[in-house]
Amino acid sequence: MTRCRSLFILMAFAGACAAGAQPGPPARQVYTTEHRFLVKLLSAPGAPRLEQYFTVRLGVYDGHDPKRRLTDYQLDVAAGMAHGLAEGFAHGMQSEPHVELRDGVAIVSGLLFSMSGEWTIRVTVHQGGEEGTASFQLPCCAQ
Ligand SMILES: [Cu+2]
Q1: How many Å lie between the centroid of ligand 1 and the Cα of residue 117?
Q2: Domain spanning 2-140, CATH architecture
Q3: Which protein residues have a CB closer than 5 Å to ligand 1 (ion)?
Q4: 25, 65, 104, 131 - which has most CB atoms within 10 Å?
Q5: Where are the domains of the chain?
Q6: Among residues 34, 49, 53, 30, which one has the least CA distance to residue 135?
Q7: 91 CA to middle of ligand 1, Å?
């Protein structure tokens, strides 16, 4: 019974990921400070589920030549809720995101939202001695 239920949740999750990976509405994108980098949210679940791990895919582009996708960068990813703070998070996630670069696309797994409301995914790009930070808002969660 427990095993069946786990399998069902896993399949539902896989379905959500597949849906997120399909070409759909224009990717959301944010420039880092001084337009150094352009970070695109290539895919994300339409609606993350409370207390369920999910994955997003990010692309990083030259901010001054946004058609040029970068491959030689490193990414730090953190997520949290501001709860009205002008800067920073009132609290983070209860999990540690994992970043894997595959053909220049950053696959960020291990994201988990533990509370309903507006979450921020903060991405810091490091490349060639430069860095820049971009933030994406993601609401939590589907009912
Ligand atoms: Cu919160």
Answers
A1: 7
A2: Sandwich (2.60)
A3: 81, 115
A4: 131
A5: 2-140
A6: 30
A7: 6
